[in-house]
Amino acid sequence: VINLENVATAQPVTILFPTSADYTPGYNGILRVGIAFSMWLACAVFQYLIYIIFYQRFIEDKIINFIDLCSVSNISIFILSDKHYGYYIHGRSPNGISDVNLKDMLINLERESSATIGKRGLEVGSDDQFFI
Fold it and tell me: Which chain regions cross the lipid bilayer (predicted)?
């Protein structure tokens, strides 16, 4: 579509738009894999940047907000949506207590953002708070 297939040829000079009179050697398999990988990587980076820049700032994720609420309020939740299937939200506060005034809560959140206390996750050093 964008003529990157000519970059995958084994020639020292890359011509993106060759004419019919130009000699075009055969395609190199390793170069084709490299171009495909770089295109997939570029798409993944683009999606990640859109998620970070746009989605997290302007569209709120209600599930993540609920998980953060459970962690700040020091509440763990076990939800069975089926007989043998469910969700577990580990809402352990890294501060140990959650019954504090607003000033202490802001201090605790600041300590958590500066990584001077432990992480919220179930396992040591992990931020994973929910398991399916």
Answer: 30-54
- Pick from 17-26, 92-101, 122-131: least confident: 122-131
Burial of 25 (0-12, 13-18, 19+ CB in 10 A): exposed
CA 31, CA 48: separation in Å to the nearest integer? Answer: 25
Please enumerate in sequence order all residues whose Cβ is within 8 A of that of 4, keeping only pairs 6 or more positions apart, or say none. Answer: 16, 35, 39
How high is the pLDDT of residue 60? 78
In contact, 6 and 18? CB cutoff 8 Å: yes
Is 0.70 surpassed by the pTM of this model?
Answer: no
